[in-house]
Amino acid sequence: MILQTEYRQRREQLMMKIGNGTALFCSAPVAVMHNDVEYNFRQDSDFFYLTGFNEPEAVAVLAPHHPEHRFVLFVQPKDWEKEVWSGYRTGVDAAKEKLGADAVYPITELDEKLPQYLEKANRIYYHLGRDRNFNHTILKHWQQLMRTYPKRGTGPMAIESTNPIMQAMRQVKSAAELEMMRKAVAISVDAHNHVMQFAKPGRYEYEIQAELEHIFRLRGALGPAYPSIVASGANSCILHYVENNQQMQEGDLLLIDAGCTYEYYNADITRTFPISGKFTPEQKILYELVLKAQLAAIAQVKPGNPYNQIHDTAVRILVQGLMDLGLLAGDIEEIIKEEKYKPFYMHRTGHWLGLDVHDAGIYKCGEQAWQTLQTNQVLTVEPGLYIGFETKPVEGQPEINDRWRGIGIRIEDDVLVTESGHEVLTAGVPKLVEEMEQ
Ligand code: GLY
Ligand code: MN
Ligand code: MN
Q1: Ligand 1 within 6 A of 257 CB?
Q2: Residue 427: pLDDT band by 50, 70, 90 thresholds?
Q3: How confident is the model at residue 356 (pLDDT cuts 50, 70, 90)?
Q4: Which residue's CA is the nearest one to ligand 1's atom 3?
Q5: Given 85, 220, 245, 377, which is the most exposed site by the fewest CB atoms within 10 A?
């Protein structure tokens, strides 16, 4: 559980960075599924990170220069007739106490109350978000303040994105956040281990999905962190295959990319295994190659190492392996530089993981310099190889022998950067060849 004190610390940290500016964060929009039916509400991650508040139609204002109200919230007011339809609201009075705001107003008073927190700010910090109405409201206020600036002599001269500040903050996880992530990982690990036993020829991909997601929900997760990918046979060559409607056949590989979201923190795991218990020789060769690349890439996860070293390590091993198999030919440096391996490996080797599956976090500082890894960052390491029936080599590269076609493999773990190196949080799901052949 993340305590109010931690949310307050985060706000203080942000306020230190914005000086005489005012930062604004808006809740996520309510997403429509169809007609007047809505998806479950999913809060905006930055807004949630700073407030822990999980309702729509809310705005958080951080004004470190304001004499009394440094943290202000606008929320939906209590309204029983509306709550009967769309759920309980915290309301103005309870929000003040529960969320530690200096002032709380009904969202209906935003236009009236917001200017007092912007007038003396030298800058507005705001990241144009998914909610166009909020974007419009903020721009409208800014325009108004610019108009009245000459008479007042103060006011924000620019709007600056909050993204760089939030990315720097969110990319390093606190002890409480890591606890949530370990919980998401533990549930996801159990779900993967269960379906590895459950999968067999004749079952449908959606049966596997149902088992996974049943365990997620049964164990208190909100649900899948992203649409579960259950891809058998050649479907494994489609990176975001989500139809999950095919019957699994003897001899197929099954690629499962699934993880749950627990208190908004996510796990993201991929395993690929032979559903009938034995790899074909070609499947095994490619699997061992991806595993070798993944283990070597994970070994690069330690504080101080540049982020790209993980990807570069995986690519070099995959390319060398593909050359040994006659699937690539030529000079290894040139193949890597010109990305001639891309028909087989078209994505990067991982991403930050946290409140978002593709989490906030900096990858590059300027054009050349990669971010160096820091203790308590969490990232995925997920190399793969995909040789579909339609895969074409780049010009000048060897023809693809049919024996390799229809094979897609990815192995994905969630890795914590520790002081001395790393911890594979998802190590509880097997991945060695002999463990997958059962
Ligand atoms: N499942 C999404 C990803 O692996 O990035
Ligand atoms: Mn991933
Ligand atoms: Mn994944």
Answers
A1: yes
A2: very high
A3: very high
A4: 268
A5: 85
